[in-house]
Write a structure and sequence with these properties.
The complex is a heterotrimer of chains A (293), B (566) and C (207).
Chain A lengths: L13 E5 L4 H17 L2 H22 L5 E5 L11 E9 L10 E3 L1 H27 L4 H7 L11 H4 L4 H25 L7 H24 L1 H6 L2 H21 L2 E3 L6 H4 L5 H5 L6 E9 L3
Helix pairs in contact in A: 1-2, 3-6, 3-9, 4-6, 6-9, 7-9
Chain B lengths: L26 H9 L4 H31 L8 H35 L8 H24 L30 H29 L12 H33 L12 H35 L6 H15 L14 H29 L8 H24 L1 H7 L3 H31 L5 H27 L16 H31 L37 H6 L10
Helix pairs in contact in B: 2-3, 2-4, 2-14, 3-4, 3-5, 3-7, 3-12, 4-5, 5-6, 6-7, 6-8, 7-8, 7-10, 7-12, 8-9, 9-10, 10-12, 10-13, 12-13, 13-14
Chain C lengths: L20 H26 L10 H4 L4 H26 L3 H36 L8 H32 L8 H28 L2
The chains are: A mainly alpha (293), B mainly alpha (566), C mainly alpha (207).
Chain lengths: 293, 566, 207
């Protein structure tokens, strides 16, 4: 091996190692004194220079014409590495156990359908609240639509409980757009939630975004924030989540690219690999069968 | 570099004159062997010991500052002394604690892990150590030797990044800044020498079968770090030379009166300063990369991804420096560039965190003290990274620049990540270095006290920062709502101090009468465990041959060796 | 240990040739040095035209064609010297090849010395005739720093070159030392390459 270019041959039982030397220290100390002289007096720098030069020359003497080595006796003691673990076990991860890149997913239209269904379902509790609390069909609509109606500052309760076209149009646009978008999001994310899609999508997700809204609505739409009744709000969000989640989950799934083996996904033409579906699982090894611990 | 067949034309010393190795030698002879040594293990130990000493020194400086800040309107320290303390604390912790620790570990472990008998350039190795060490002593000599503004001896007092023009002759009279600049040039030379050595060792000294992609990740990360040091420390050295030209020869590099630009110093310093964080943290990652697999009883997850992520971090880190300078007044595109590039660092770092978690997942985890420190590191580093991303947003940064929020953030990285990893590494390799196991019982006390103290100090330090408490102030008026937080922070600092004293005690006691470690106490897989503890001067009697990333696994499980999978 | 070499797996270790550690280390040093030069070059470029007072580069700087030619051709002579040494280690006509090496090496050192003398003359003119010192203005500060940094590298190189020359003249240099000479030659090539950058920045762009 050329890694030991200059290492001389050592007799049996010995090894040649670089000999200890103080010259690097002398050189470093000389440089220290040169620097110290800069902040104190030139005489110290001069002394440092002398030391550094002698250190450098001494160092040269160490490596020229041949690097200096010393022989060290070597005892070859046997060491057989042994593990306290006797066996190797495998952590097999099923190919279907895919939390993040689903093998199948609902189609885009499934997400849209879910959004539409959820949006309709959401209207029911929202309107119910308006009817029970204010005996008005338009209360919830006007609250949501109020956001986009510029001339509507500090409306009276009478105004809010009565029909107003501009508020209805605005509310319909906001409601439809948000419902469709969230529906699409459900279509995309629900298959990534490995267990309880209805629980997570129908209950947790609405609760989460209600929390975010509750915290931030005072900045986005203070008017809406003041008038909102949060219990009913949560109920209508859950109605959306449940229905949208259920509809999305009921739709037929289509395969994603992840269904294909890796070689096919990256576009390699390797027919042999593509047949081997079972190799898609991920194998990791760990040790098992501890002894005496 | 002649062929090995060349006859040896000078007599080699006969063996037997190895004082210090056998009992019965005087302490002077022992000292002589240590001072003249070129052995990478002894030098590595000296680096680590040197760093431990300065860790205590800089720790005491931190405690003094925390005492001063514990109550409002305190007069425990004068403002001048306070300035010196935070300057010396920062400079010491970065250059005399962090760097020697990581270089010490690299020195000790890299040759052992790649199956070599020494570093490629053993004499340069000794020279590098002495330059670093003497540079540190030189810096501390300023307490006695430098004549400062008050006429008495004084240390540098212009923060550890020494912003121009405060460091110019006109504003820093006396020699304090000269001590600072010269000491950093000295230790910089040492650091560059060590980096050159690591690179030469990794490329030229690997044992048979040790291809680049079979090297342990620790070696990979130290190689990356060494490369980063070359392009990081050099700019600092260059900038210090410019500062010295200004101060001694009357140059105008950073002299605004002659048209010079102090902002240029900011740039030069942070071109060094930010990658420096990665110079410190990559070797800390390296330690976690060895400890976590060993105690999870699994191979590291995603080895190539880890290598790539390390290289990616090193590369990206060179392009993020000005996120320290959002308040300097750069152009909007400049700000935007550094916001985005800083965010980019999160990608490879995230890969690493996921890989550590995936390594632990499904493994048979053994919670030794070393592993506990490593696990705490992963969690704390994640939090530190999150506040880092907050601070990399320019508007947020404008609000919080130079407040204790920033101090809390970078101490979260430096202590929560780097110091935790260093402790993890010390618990892991102390048996290899000394042959004795550190006491796990004391170690658990150390761990829990340190975790408690760390979180008390640095979690609560974020809050006065958010409340607007600036850094570097030596005291403050009551009534800003900072008092109670500062008391908590101060108490936490003392808890950390107790933990570190406990650790020192543990080291001394275990060294004197700890349990024998044996060659392979952790049942690990890299080559350093294939030789006795402590290793003989020649490391390996027979040069090892490896066939996979985990040569000792192949030995321990011949029925299922790694090389079948690589 | 011995046990480690025991069950040789099918693809144990192929016998590769590790690169010379001297060359690797010198390349690493060159990277570090390049970073130092880069900082000085950036400072020079940043301060072009920012001096508050004269003299300006255009008034006082003359393009050192002769110097540049000398320094750059020394790269060629050192390469020829290396080649002679390589021939000396392989061929039987070692003596003549070694003589050729000594001659080319002396040429290199001489060319380096001429360059250094040229720089010294240039500085003398700048200081005594034009009154440009480090203190004068930003141009003076950056010019002397950058060119001085390069000149100090030339001086270090020249000292090493003359050591080798002395060894060669006294017959202590053998073809076996070829690899060490190569390391030094690599450094010299670097010094020359940096001059190209310094020349471009100082005398072409900055003038």
């Amino acid at each position: 091996m050329s890694s030991h270019e200059e290492r001389p041959e050592a007799p049996d039982g010995f090894v040649a190692l670089p000999a200890p030397t103080a010259w690097p220290l002398v050189l470093a100390f000389g440089l220290l004194l040169i620097f110290l002289g800069v902040v104190t007096s030139a005489a110290i720098s001069l002394l440092g220079l002398v030391l550094a030069v002698s250190g450098g020359i001494g160092w040269f003497g160490e490596v020229l014409p041949q690097e200096r080595h010393e022989l060290i006796s070597m005892e070859a003691h046997e060491f057989a590495p042994k593990s306290t673990y006797r066996a190797v076990s495998r952590i097999h991860i099923d190919a279907q156990h895919r939390a993040h890149l689903p093998v199948t997913t609902p189609s885009v239209t499934a997400g849209l359908k879910g959004g539409v269904a959820g949006g309709i379902a959401m209207i029911v509790p929202a309107t119910l609240y308006g009817l029970i609390a204010f005996h008005s069909f338009w209360y919830a609509v006007n609250l949501l639509g109020g956001a986009g109606v510029a001339d509507w500052t500090n409306p009276t309760m009478a105004q809010i409980t009565h029909f107003r076209l501009s508020a209805l149009v605005t509310a319909a646009v906001i409601h439809a757009a948000l419902s469709l978008l969230v529906g699409l999001l459900y279509g995309a994310t629900l298959p990534m939630l490995p267990r309880h899609p209805i629980l997570l999508g129908g209950l947790f997700a609405p609760l989460l975004w209600t929390g975010v809204l509750h915290a931030s609505l005072s900045l986005i739409n203070p008017f809406l924030d003041q008038k909102i009744h949060w219990v009913w709000f949560v109920v209508s969000q859950i109605a959306f989540g449940m229905v949208a989640g259920w509809v999305v989950a009921k739709q037929a799934h289509i395969r994603t690219q992840q269904y294909l083996p890796f070689a096919a996904r990256v576009g390699l033409e390797t027919p042999g690999l593509i047949a081997e579906r079972h190799q898609e699982g991920l194998d990791q090894r760990t040790e098992s069968g501890e002894e005496g611990r | 570099m002649a062929d090995s067949t060349l006859p040896v034309d000078r007599p080699m010393e006969l063996p037997g004159d190895l004082p210090g190795e056998q009992p019965g030698f005087t302490w002077l002879e022992t000292l002589h062997t240590w001072v003249t040594t070129v052995d990478h293990k002894k030098l590595g130990l000296m680096y680590i010991g040197y760093a431990l000493i300065f860790l205590l020194v800089a720790g005491v400086e931190a405690l003094l500052m925390r005492v001063q800040l514990m109550v409002a309107n305190n007069h425990f320290l004068s403002p001048e002394v306070y300035n010196r303390l935070f300057t010396m604390h920062g400079t010491t912790m970065v250059f005399l604690v962090g760097m020697p620790f990581i270089i010490g570990f690299a020195n000790y472990l890299v040759p052992l892990m790649i199956g070599a008998r020494d570093m490629a350039l053993p004499r340069l190795n000794a020279f590098s150590f002495w330059m670093t060490a003497l540079g540190g002593f030189f810096l501390y000599y300023s307490f006695l030797g430098a004549v400062g503004l008050q006429g008495a001896g004084s240390a540098p007092d212009t923060t550890w990044w020494g912003y121009a023009p405060l460091t110019e002759r006109a504003f820093s009279r006396g020699h304090t800044m000269d001590y600072w600049a010269l000491a950093l040039v000295m230790s910089g030379i040492g650091t560059i020498g060590a980096a050159v050595n690591v690179i030469a060792t990794v490329f030229c000294m690997r044992c048979k079968g040790m291809t680049l992609f079979r090297m342990p990740l620790l070696v990979w990360l130290n190689l990356t770090t060494a490369g980063l040091i070359l392009v990081t420390i050099s700019p600092l050295t260059a900038a210090q030379i410019m500062l010295l030209i200004d101060r001694y020869l009357g140059g105008h590099f950073f002299d605004s009166q002659a048209g010079g630009s102090p902002v240029l110093w900011f740039h030069f310093f942070w071109i060094f300063g930010h990658p420096e964080v990665y110079v410190l943290v990559l070797p800390a990652f390296a330690i976690a990369n060895e400890v976590i697999p060993t105690f999870s009883r699994k191979a590291i997850f995603g080895y190539p991804a880890m290598v790539a992520a390390s290289a990616g971090i090193a590369f990206i880190s060179l392009g993020v420096w000005a996120h320290h300078m959002f308040t300097v007044g750069m152009s909007a595109p400049g700000n935007a560039f550094f916001v985005l590039s800083t965010g980019l660092v999160g990608v490879p770092t995230g890969i690493k965190i996921f890989n550590w978690i995936a390594t632990m997942w499904g493994g048979k985890i053994r919670f030794t003290v070393s592993m506990m420190f490593a696990v705490a590191f992963v969690a704390q580093f994640l939090l530190a990274g999150l506040t880092g991303i907050m601070l990399s947003m320019a508007p947020w940064n404008w609000q919080l620049h130079d407040t204790y929020f920033v101090v809390a953030h970078f101490h979260y990285v430096l202590v929560g990540a780097i110091v935790f990893c260093i402790f993890s590494g010390l618990y892991y390799w102390f048996p290899k270095m000394t042959g004795k196991l550190l006491s796990e019982r004391l170690g658990k006390w150390h761990f829990w006290l340190f975790v408690l103290g760390f979180h008390m100090t640095f979690d609560f330090m974020h809050i006065p920062g958010l409340l607007g408490m600036p850094r570097w102030i030596y005291t403050y008026q009551p009534g800003f709502g900072w008092e109670k937080w500062n008391i908590l922070v101060g108490v936490g600092a003392f808890v950390q101090g107790i933990a570190i004293l406990l650790f020192s005690f543990n080291m001394v006691r275990s060294y004197l009468k700890g349990a024998e470690a044996g060659p392979d106490p952790w049942d690990a897989w890299t080559l350093e465990w294939a030789t006795s503890s402590p290793p003989p001067p020649y490391n390996f009697a027979i040069e090892p041959v490896v066939a996979s990333r985990r040569p000792l696994w192949d030995q321990k499980h011949p029925e299922d060796p790694d090389w079948r999978y690589e | 240990m011995s046990a480690l070499a025991a069950p040789a797996p099918p693809h144990a270790g192929s016998d590769r040739r590790a690169p010379s550690r001297g060359i690797v280390a010198m390349l690493a040093v060159i990277v570090a040095e390049s970073a130092i030069f880069a900082i000085f070059v950036v400072a020079y470029v940043f301060y072009i035209g920012k001096s508050l007072s004269g003299p300006t580069p255009r008034q006082v700087l003359e393009i050192p064609y002769f110097n540049t030619v000398c320094l750059l051709s020394s790269s060629i002579t050192i390469w020829l010297a290396e080649r002679s040494l390589k021939r000396a280690s392989t061929r039987s006509a070692t003596r003549s090849a070694m003589r050729a090496f000594t001659a080319w090496w002396a040429c290199t050192a001489l060319l380096g010395a001429i360059f250094l003398a040229g720089t010294a003359l240039e500085w003398r003119k700048l200081i005594y005739q034009d009154g440009l010192t480090v203190r004068t203005n930003l141009f003076g500060t950056t010019f002397y720093s950058l060119v001085g940094l390069h000149a100090s590298h030339v001086i270090i190189g020249l000292i090493m070159l003359s050591f080798v020359l002395i060894f060669a003249l006294t017959g202590k240099l053998h073809p076996q030392h070829r690899h060490r000479v190569e390391v030094l030659a690599l450094y010299w090539h670097f010094v020359d390459a940096v001059w190209v950058v310094v020349f471009t920045v100082v005398y072409v762009i900055g003038r």
